[in-house]
Write a structure and sequence with these properties.
The protein is mainly alpha-helical and about 120 residues long. It is built from four helices and no strands. The longest helix has about 35 residues.
Length: about 120
């Protein structure tokens, strides 16, 4: 495989990860709506907040690439994103392995409280 094909393969993999992530957010919207008891009119705000956070992270990544090099930053970010997506996908139920979840102790999420 020559260099151009390698670059194309990496760019395609990165684009696939972005499309996959956006799809996951859209698929999760009904569950988010049910858990937070939001009206349907608020769902675009959730997607917009995700897009804003995603755009801000792109700006941060661009600055890191200027400082540390484009290839190193791109591959590091792709590896970090893949690992985080894998952990999120494998997590089942209430997250007990994350530090915020451990600090809550046995507290349950808001959607599970009796009212």
């Amino acid at each position: 495989m020559n260099r151009a094909n390698g670059v194309l393969a990496v760019a395609c993999a990165a684009q696939f990860m972005v499309v996959l992530d956006v799809s996951v957010v859209n698929v999760a919207l009904p569950a988010i709506q049910a858990d937070l008891r939001l009206p349907a009119a608020h769902l675009p705000w959730i997607a917009g907040a995700y897009a804003l956070a995603f755009g801000g992270t792109l700006l941060l990544g661009a600055r890191l690439a200027d400082i540390h090099g484009h290839r190193r930053t791109f591959l590091g970010g792709l590896a970090l994103f893949t690992a985080a997506s894998l952990l999120g996908g494998l997590a089942g139920g209430e997250p007990r392995w994350s530090p915020p979840a451990r600090s809550r102790g046995s507290a349950r999420p808001c959607s599970h409280r009796s009212r």
